């Protein structure tokens, strides 16, 4: 039983039913997570909201399959670490709902990624990087 259950879980975690609400939540809330700051109270509030979102999505999925949370855990454990490594990025989002450190790391990583993308777009539009975004370099406009 565990193989089809595990494959169903992976399929769900790759589907828009999971990815859209989770990625939207992360993109919207990650802006407050700073890699250089200590934990803020708001981090824990956001973490609780994320836990509720993940729990609701997984409960709805498991209910649709007629499966219990115990069967979900059992299926994941039976597949072993090797199979989970293959889908590690998918299971990180689930693990993040159970572990604040993983959650915070995921949010910081996403915030940095979005900031770098914004910087790249700005650089493409302007044709140069504003000095404020360059360490130790004065702003230089194209000649």
Molecular structure report:
- The protein is 73% helix and 0% strand.
- The chain contains six helices and no strands.
- α1 crosses α4 and α2 (16-29) runs antiparallel to α3 (41-65).
- The relative contact order is 0.14.
Order of helices and strands: HHHHHH
Shape: elongated
> Residue share in helices?
over 70%
How much β-strand is present in the residues? Answer: under 5%
The profile of the biggest β sheet is: none
Quick synopsis:
The protein is mainly alpha-helical. The protein is 73% helix and 0% strand.
Walk me through the topology.
Blueprint: H1 2-14, H2 16-29, H3 41-65, H4 69-86, H5 88-95, H6 100-126
Helix pairs in contact: 1-4, 2-3
């Amino acid at each position: 039983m565990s193989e089809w259950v595990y494959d169903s879980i992976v399929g769900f975690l790759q589907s828009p039913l999971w990815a859209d609400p989770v990625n939207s939540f992360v993109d919207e809330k990650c802006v407050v997570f700073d890699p250089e700051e200590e934990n803020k109270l708001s981090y824990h509030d956001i973490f609780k909201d994320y836990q509720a979102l993940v729990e609701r999505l997984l409960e709805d999925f498991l209910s649709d399959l007629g499966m219990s949370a115990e069967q979900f855990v059992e299926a994941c454990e039976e597949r072993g670490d090797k199979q989970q490594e293959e889908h590690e990025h998918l299971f990180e989002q689930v693990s993040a709902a159970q572990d604040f450190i993983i959650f915070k790391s995921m949010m910081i990583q996403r915030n940095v990624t979005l900031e770098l993308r914004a910087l790249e777009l700005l650089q493409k539009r302007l044709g140069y990087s504003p000095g404020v975004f360059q360490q130790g370099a004065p702003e230089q406009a194209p000649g």
